[in-house]
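Page 47, continued from p. 46.
Same chain as before, 109 aa.
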Amino acid sequence: MGKVPVYLVDGALLNRVHDIGFVQGGNSVEDPKMPNPGKTKYFLVLDDRHCRHDLCFVLLHEAVELEVMVIEKLSYEEAHDTVANPAELHARLRGFDLLQDRKLLRIGP
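Result:
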């Protein structure tokens, strides 16, 4: 899969113009119609309404979800429920910051 860009988006705007169900984050396989500013095959989006602490866990969730959907060919529901949610819960219980070295590209107004 290689490097996957991560975009910090205006979640309220995305709710209004793209998907009323957008919550916390998403990825390009889960939602192929997600606006794609970089025109890459794979990308992640994170809602800018969350604090940095929560964003690191949403980033982990979305990255794991995307990876297993692409590599292991799991459906969104399988990836979300059986892999991404448990990974996020485990990380939240242990506590760490994935964003310390990650550059996020902010898109939106």
